[in-house]
Specification:
Number of domains of chain A: 2
Helix content of chain B: over 70%
Helix content of chain A: over 70%
Low-confidence stretches of chain B: none
CATH class of the largest domain in chain A: Mainly Alpha
Strand order of the largest sheet of chain B: 1-2
Distance between the termini of chain A: 41 Å
Number of helices of chain A: 13
Largest interface: A-B, 88 and 82 residues
Strand content of chain A: under 5%
Strand content of chain B: under 5%
CATH class of chain B: Mainly Alpha
Radius of gyration of chain B: 24 Å
Radius of gyration of chain A: 23 Å
Oligomer: heterotrimer
Order of helices and strands of chain B: HEEHHHHHHHHHHHH
Chains: A mainly alpha (about 270), B mainly alpha (about 290), C alpha+beta (about 350)
């Protein structure tokens, strides 16, 4: 009797899990299926073809937008993670009065609607007569993504043993050397995921790029959106499928890095 | 200068780059936006450089803006948050009760949508809710409607999109809290005769309130400030604050007013979150007190 | 020639005094322990000597050079932390060799010298392992190797054995002392374990709430404590307080609690006239009939504590419970026996 109840319970859990994950993943799966549809962007597909994937190669706009997005995301990731991690380390050691204030300011872009930030920067550009360029775009993306490295590195630092840095100094390391040889290598578990997270956030960013992009620097999401409006065909689904797979892979990599490190800390 | 001071002395230098970048690309633009919201613009698109509250009074007195825009945004966000929390709670529950080995995989699956491009995600919803899409097919097959329903480019689509967007965040917030509730407490309840529902209602649910609070605040913030979902799934027909700000800036070319809309959105969002946190926080304290009495 | 000289060092944290006017000299090649309970400031003092903390006032001199304003990375010290502080992302060899790397030593030299240091702590074969693969005792030995590889002027150890099991601790004590004597390193060893301090040190500094109570050899600390605190902290003590009285067969303290307590013959002027103490092993017990002169206190055995190799008696005398060490295996006193306690208490010095 009890075993039957247990089995029923497990089945209910299983069914609920199935429904839940179906809810959040089904749309993406449907989109992937549509990318194989030879005719239109309709599900269920009426056939199977891979030709939309080859069509992508004929779309120079897409390829150049992908290129731009990648460069932008790489720069954003590098600058955002470096300055964010440095700030987190600095805040960790800083005992001054403004510590909490600075920390809140660094995290505040998370609370501001992206529209405001984008509007503000584009406005300022207009006033100053500066043309939209890569530097401004990177600056905006860095602002939007920096809270993540700051938060992640701060979290790892809170459990960090300060004696490790002191030990380095007792064998002759200056604070700078201690930082490079002891602190940074040990912060790898929060810095590497931050690099990837900021990269993805910048790569996927639509709102900020909408306000600040120009004809020289169209990003991938904007290009995708243009296709949605003007060329609604399955190749868009094919592009999307590639993006989905890439995102999932990057997430997997981050998962592994944090997971493995977490296990080795035991 | 001894070592402690060495570490401490170098600290400002490390913090400087981040602060500089934020100052230039965030603080200064924000200050400008606030200033801008107090200016007016001429039909020609130029701005008048004297301070006035005209924009704000215009916004707050015009029912079009107040009820149609602001209230609609709040209302839609609240509903979306509610559904997101309910669905997200179910998801978090399922994941936290799954076998230990499966949990990382399940969390991975939960996080997947968050890492996919927003445009792609809205596209997937467009395919889903299309007139010839699977949802319509199912509805017709079940006999609920006789011809395809317009599911896209309206409020329902935006609502659905917002729920879809925020559910993974709710799961993230709740997962940790649910995992930390000791199973023994539930077993203890069952051993004194509570069935699954009673155990859930009396043990699990009250103890997970902090997670619900955190998750709903996160979801509410995200939904209030969302831009991509309303603009792509709304098809220009759904009034939403952030979209209105964008359109006022680009189409109407009325930048000061766009700034006003954006700032009102910010203030209202932060106020709502603050009040909500205060309210639920005190309620959870009351319920804890009641339980221990 | 002094290895380390601390003069007038005081330290305040947020206005609260942690160290007050500490003066201390460590001779070259000496093994000095700083002994005290938690919170007495001993670790702070050690860290000030190391340069990990800055004193509010006072000076520190190491090997003839005033280092008070020198940051820790400029002082030629070796430091061993209580919880080892080995860098988890580096091998044992690289942990030991990091100091050499920082000095720009070549790869072969680094390897040779690091292995030599590891050889001194018998861990040469562990050179390529990671710290997480080592036991607590092994990690501590790596920490010691790391501290001595640079041939520092002084070796500073902050409760290095407190994190280890008791058995392991005793083995490590022997090894540390042997190493120190071999290298003739000026060593300062912080601990709260008085047995550890007594067995290892040439001299001991006893601290209490930021102040030095006494500096002396273990023998001096044990037999001639400078204050009730020191007497109580090191070894077992019974105190007697009262008025001095000179009688025909000697000097006594007369207390309301215990009656007449006999004192040592050579009570001098520098000693207090109120407090005396006695150690358990100074007392011999005798059964009736008692000596005719009746000058010894009489008590009743309340408890016998059997340790295996030895026994202790707790003797009720007057208002006090005096702990007495059994004379040997043949001691046959039992609970309830009335006994005569023959001893001479020692007066504590004047404050």
């Amino acid at each position: 009797m009890k075993r039957a109840r247990l089995k029923l319970g497990t089945t209910i859990w299983g069914a609920t899990a199935f429904v839940f994950f179906g809810f959040i993943l089904l749309p993406l799966l449907i989109l992937i299926a549509v990318s194989f549809n030879p005719t239109t962007m309709i599900f269920p597909p009426q056939g199977f073809t891979l030709r939309w994937y080859t069509v992508i190669l004929d779309k120079p706009d897409f390829l150049s937008a992908a290129c731009s997005s990648t460069v932008l995301a790489a720069l954003t990731a590098a600058i955002s993670t470096t300055s964010g991690a440095a700030a987190a380390i600095g805040l960790h050691h800083y005992k001054g009065r403004f510590r909490a204030l600075v920390q809140n300011i660094l995290l505040s872009p998370l609370f501001f609607p992206a529209v405001i930030v984008a509007l503000a920067i584009s406005q300022l550009m207009l006033i100053m007569g500066v043309m939209a360029n890569l530097a401004i775009l990177v600056g905006a993306h860095v602002v939007v993504t920096m809270p993540y490295p700051v938060r992640n590195v701060t979290a790892q630092l809170s459990g960090f043993d300060g004696r490790l840095e002191e030990a380095a100094m007792t064998v002759g390391a200056t604070p700078r050397q201690a930082l490079l040889r002891v602190t940074l290598p040990l912060l790898r578990d929060s810095i590497v995921p931050s690099l990837i997270i900021t990269f993805v956030l910048s790569w996927n960013n639509y709102t900020v790029s909408l306000f600040l992009a120009s004809s020289d620097w169209t990003t991938l999401p904007l290009q995708l959106r243009a296709y949605l409006q003007y060329e609604y065909e399955p190749f868009v689904a094919a592009m999307s499928t590639i993006l989905i797979i890439m995102s999932a892979t990057l997430l997997f990599v981050v998962d592994r890095t944090v997971g493995a490190a977490g296990r080795s800390r035991v | 200068m001894t070592s402690k001071n060495g570490l401490r002395a170098g600290a400002p230098l490390l913090i400087l780059p981040a602060v500089l970048i934020l100052a230039v690309f965030f603080v200064v633009p924000l200050v400008w936006i606030v200033m801008l919201s107090f200016m007016t613009s001429e039909p020609a698109g130029t701005t008048e450089p004297h301070a006035t509250l005209a924009n704000y009074t215009h916004f707050l007195t015009d029912s079009y803006y107040l009820t149609d825009l602001l209230w609609r945004t709040v209302w839609l966000s609240a509903i979306a948050t509610f559904f997101a929390v309910v669905i997200g709670y179910v998801g978090a529950l399922v994941i936290s009760r799954a076998p230990e080995k499966r949990q990382p995989t399940l969390m991975f699956l939960n996080m997947c949508p968050l890492w996919v491009n927003l445009v792609v995600r809205t596209l997937s919803l467009m395919v889903l809710l299309d007139r010839d899409g699977p949802v319509n097919h199912i509805l017709m097959a079940l006999g609920i409607t006789s011809h395809p329903v317009q599911l896209l480019f309206n409020e329902s689509a935006v609502l659905f999109g917002m729920v879809q967007m925020s559910v993974p965040f709710v799961v993230l917030s709740l997962h940790g809290v649910l995992k930390s509730i000791p199973r023994e407490l539930e077993h203890a309840a069952m051993s004194v005769g509570a069935n699954l529902f009673a155990t859930f209602r009396r043990v699990t649910l009250p103890l997970s309130v902090p997670g619900i609070l955190a998750g709903s605040i996160l979801a509410l913030g995200i939904n209030m400030e969302s831009f991509v979902v309303p603009i792509l799934l709304g098809g220009g027909r759904v009034r939403f604050m952030s979209v209105a700000a964008y359109e006022t800036a680009t189409i109407s070319n009325n930048l000061p007013f766009a700034a006003t809309i954006g700032l009102v959105l910010l203030v209202v969002t932060l106020t709502m979150l603050g009040v909500y946190q205060r309210l639920v926080g005190s309620m959870s304290r009351v319920s804890i007190a009641l339980r221990s009495a | 020639m002094y290895g380390i000289s601390v003069s007038g060092v005081s330290k305040q944290f947020d206005g609260l005094p942690v160290l007050t006017d500490v003066n201390l000299s460590v001779r070259t090649g000496e093994f000095l322990s700083i002994l005290g309970p938690s919170g007495c400031g001993k670790s702070t003092l050690l860290r000030i000597i190391a340069g990990l903390e800055e004193p509010t006032s006072g000076d520190v001199v190491i090997a003839g050079r005033t280092v008070t304003r020198d940051p820790v990375w400029k002082r030629k010290i070796g430091f061993v932390f209580q919880h080892f502080a080995l860098w988890p992302h580096l091998t044992v060899l690289r942990n030991v060799a990091m100091g050499l790397e920082l000095r720009g030593a070549g790869k072969q030299e680094r390897r040779d010298r690091a292995l030599a240091a590891l050889r001194l702590v018998q861990l040469e074969s562990f050179a390529d392992r990671m710290p997480s693969q080592l036991s607590g005792g092994q990690q501590q030995r790596v920490a010691v190797a790391r501290a001595i590889v640079l041939e520092p002027a002084v070796l500073l150890l902050d409760e290095p054995l407190s994190a280890l099991d008791k058995n392991l601790r005793q083995d490590m004590q022997v090894e540390l002392k042997a190493l120190q004597q071999k290298l003739l390193l000026t060593t300062v060893f912080v601990t709260h374990d008085q047995e550890e301090a007594m067995s290892l040190s040439d001299r001991i500094v006893v601290m209490n709430r930021g102040v030095i109570e006494q500096i002396g050899t273990p023998e001096q600390i044990y037999n001639r404590p400078a204050s009730p605190y020191v007497a109580r902290f090191v070894g077992e003590t019974t105190f007697f307080e009262g008025e001095l009285e000179h009688r025909e067969h000697g000097t006594f303290i007369r207390s309301s609690a215990n009656g007449y307590i006999p004192l040592e013959a050579d009570s001098s002027q520098t000693q207090s006239d109120r407090i005396a103490f006695v150690r358990p092993e100074w007392v011999t017990l005798h059964k009736p009939p008692y000596s005719e002169k009746r000058m010894w206190p009489v008590g009743k055995i309340e408890r016998v504590i059997f340790f295996g190799a030895t026994s202790d008696y707790l003797v009720r005398q007057g208002d006090s419970l005096i702990r007495v060490k059994a004379a040997g295996a043949n001691d046959c006193f039992r609970r309830g026996d009335e006994v005569e306690l023959q001893f001479a208490a020692r007066l504590l010095p004047k404050r």
